[in-house]
Amino acid sequence: MALAGCLLACASAGSSGAGRGGAGGAQTGAAGASAGASGVSGATGSAGSLAGSSGPAGTPETGGGSGHALAGAAGKGGGMAAAGSGAAGAGGSSGQGGVSAGHGGFAGATAGASGSSGAPMALQDLQSAYLDLRFGMFIHFGILTYTGTWSQANLPISMFNPTKLDPAQWATAAASAHMKFGVLTTRHHDGFALWPSAASTFNVGHIPWKNGQGDVVRAYVDAFRAKGLLPGLYYSIWDNTEGIGNGPVTAAQMDYVKTQITELLTNYGPIPILVIDGWAWKTGHNRIAYQEIRELVKSLQPNCLLTDHTHLNDPWEVDIINFEEPAGSFAPAGNTYAAEQDTKINASGGNDWFWAPDIGNLMSVSAVVDQHLALLEPRYTNFILNCPPNRDGLLDSAIVTRLGEVGAAWSPNSNRAPLPKQDPIIEHPYTPVSATATSGNAAYAIDGLNDTTVHTLWQSSGSLPQSVTLDLGQLRSDVGMLTYLPPYSLSAGGMGMAAGSITGYGILVSSDGNTFSEATTGTWAADGKIKTVAFGPVAARYVRLEARTAMGGSAMATDITVGAKR
């Protein structure tokens, strides 16, 4: 389905006050949208919507102004609805300035045309709409702005004291560069949370700043929506203070993570993307089960895109690939996967990604525009530029000036071709409880552990065929997808390798682990790229990938994922 100028609207299940977008733009729904499915009231929820970047401007409604590409709106009772600029019959909007409070994310691509509140979008449409944002601001802000070193535990969080905190300044600077969204570090590896989380006391609710009443996440989402920008969030699963990721994950630690993710996706309105870190490269996607995290995110906000710093060039267990440039990764020429790439605006100084007094050597306008945006746009990769606030809670004036200069030199390329059709991913995964193999270490095929220069690999020995069998822990009625991630090179920005890639396979299933039947068979090109195959669906507890032929004689797998076909 074509998206008219990147049409996005924020919606929720169980919401009311949905409006209709047409040639004009956003119309306001009920002034105080009803609670969404999450139970967030109209008084506290917040929402926003993104209209197309082409077509006539909409008419301002209830305090809104004419928009350029976005129709954003503040929450807390619904303060405004900005004008959109979507094509006729394509805009979607309203209720509390967006579509509604509660659950949401991006709404259906044609919600405005039909006047509906917006159903969950197809992943291809979500990816296309996100990539039309092109440029965003990464905002590393936290206790490391004041003290400590990367991932240091138990820091003195009372030092966090941004007396002039002004996310509206961040948003204004972002808009001046033609950025369309932000990504705020709600909690980094040190564990300090920028919102008053009920999961622990290691957060802004338990420090002198604002007498424990401060909430950076709330200030950020409200300010960005008021400026017509979408508020993405970053969350680190690894928490060095809680010890999450430093050993076996307990049930209490899993509850801690899920509680915080639930708070972020319930209390702050629609979130376009959740960027997770400290997961694939620290805990792996098995110890912190990918199935549980994905199901949670999508149950709370079906249209919230999920990504992780996997340090892979393939869309393995993510909706959007993330290229972390300082770790040596850059979107390759010819990339057609939906992706994003992040880097720091400062080439020197700072405290890792955070601000420090010696921050300097800012990227030139040419470095941002010619060496990044111009290269990444045709590679279907959003550019997220980290601009860390200082200890006052403000962007340094030099950063603000540079962003304005970037905006004067760049605007999105409206002639970029639409995102090519993406290969299917497993949207309903089943994380296995164990695995066995005819040879090699089967655990390496399911641990989901990947870093820039660390990839655990299952490798067969002896003549083929050889196989890995996954135990899903219980009988599943709708097993019908398998993803195979070939061996990856152990180098920064590494790619999948042809050597060791399985080229001929069979997929077998069983309910008891003894009697197996063949679900499908086929061949794969030895090109080092991720492979996903659909079959059935069938009822199964055990799923076996049998390598019948492989490039070089020995079969290898970085990871194997199994899921439902629905």
Task: Map the helices and strands.
Elements: E1 8-9, E2 48-50, E3 70-72, H1 111-114, H2 123-131, E4 135-139, H3 167-176, E5 181-187, H4 216-226, E6 230-236, H5 251-267, E7 273-277, H6 284-287, H7 290-300, E8 305-308, E9 321-324, E10 339-344, E11 346-348, E12 360-362, H8 365-376, E13 381-386, H9 397-409, E14 434-437, E15 450-451, E16 454-455, E17 458-459, E18 466-485, E19 502-510, E20 517-523, E21 531-550, E22 556-557, E23 559-564
Parallel strand pairs: 4-5, 4-13, 5-6, 6-7, 7-8, 9-10, 10-13
Antiparallel strand pairs: 1-2, 2-3, 11-12, 14-18, 15-16, 17-22, 18-21, 18-23, 19-20, 19-21
Helix pairs in contact: 3-4, 3-9, 5-7, 8-9
What's the multimeric state? single chain
* Total count of helical runs of at least 4 residues: 9
CATH superfamily of the largest domain: Glycosidases
Look up the CATH topology of the largest domain. Answer: TIM Barrel
Number of beta-strand segments: 23
Could you walk me through the main structural features you see in this protein, from its secondary elements to its overall organization?
The protein is α/β, with parallel strands linked by helices. The protein folds into 3 domains: 1-121, no CATH class; 128-409, TIM Barrel (Alpha-Beta Barrel); 434-564, Jelly Rolls. Helices cover 16% and strands 23% of the residues. The protein contains 9 helices and 23 strands. It has helices spanning 111-114, 123-131, 167-176, 216-226, 251-267, 284-287, 290-300, 365-376, 397-409; strands at 8-9, 48-50, 70-72, 135-139, 181-187, 230-236, 273-277, 305-308, 321-324, 339-344, 346-348, 360-362, 381-386, 434-437, 450-451, 454-455, 458-459, 466-485, 502-510, 517-523, 531-550, 556-557, 559-564. The longest helix is centred in the middle third of the chain and has 17 residues, at 251-267. It starts with 7 loop residues before the first strand and ends with a strand.
